[in-house]
Amino acid sequence: MRHLMRILGYSAEIARSGEEALRAVSKEGFCIILIDIAMPGMDGLETARRIRAITGYEEPWMIAASAMTWTNAFNECLAAGMNDFILKPITLDDLRRTLARYTDEMANA
């Protein structure tokens, strides 16, 4: 994922668990957060809920990434506070299109 982000011109930090992600978010702001649903320990849905609960951190765009599909997956991600869903394996074009929806919106804000 980091490699794809760099190809597209973005910098990226990697958190290997929900706990690491929460620590990173509490230290610095992020515009876009890609969250794997099946992270070790705290899953991506709970991680998203907790990020949304952090005071003053209502604004980041959060995109769920998962190889798993299940009935209502997208709705569960939205209910957890995510803005979008991208299916793995993620291609460069899929990532470019998904990120463009949010980076274009930020540029036009």
Condensed summary:
The chain has 109 residues and is of the alpha/beta class. The chain is 46% helix and 14% strand.
Total beta strands? 3
If you compute it from the alpha carbons, what radius of gyration comes out, rounded to the nearest whole angstrom?
Answer: 13 Å
Give the overall pLDDT as a whole number. Answer: 88
Say which CATH homologous superfamily is assigned.
Response regulator
The main sheet comes to: 3 strands, parallel
The number of domains is: 1
State the CATH architecture: 3-Layer(aba) Sandwich
Q: Helix coverage percent of residues?
A: 40-55%
Strand content: 5-15%
CATH topology type: Rossmann fold
Poorly predicted tracts of residues? none
Q: Which CATH class is shown?
A: Alpha Beta
Structural class: alpha/beta
Categorize the overall geometry.
globular
Order of strands across the main sheet: 1-2-3
**Element-by-element helix/strand order:** HHEHEHEH
From the N-terminal CA to the C-terminal CA, the straight-line distance is 27 Å
Plain-language structure description:
This protein has helices at residues 2-7, 18-27, 44-53, 73-79, 92-108; strands at residues 32-36, 61-66, 84-87. It contains 5 helices and 3 strands; from the N terminus they run H-H-E-H-E-H-E-H. The radius of gyration is 13 Å and the shape is globular. The longest helix has 17 residues, at 92-108. The protein has a single domain, classed as Response regulator (Rossmann fold, 3-Layer(aba) Sandwich). It has 109 residues and is of the alpha/beta class. It has a 3-stranded parallel beta sheet with strand order 1-2-3, sandwiched between helices.
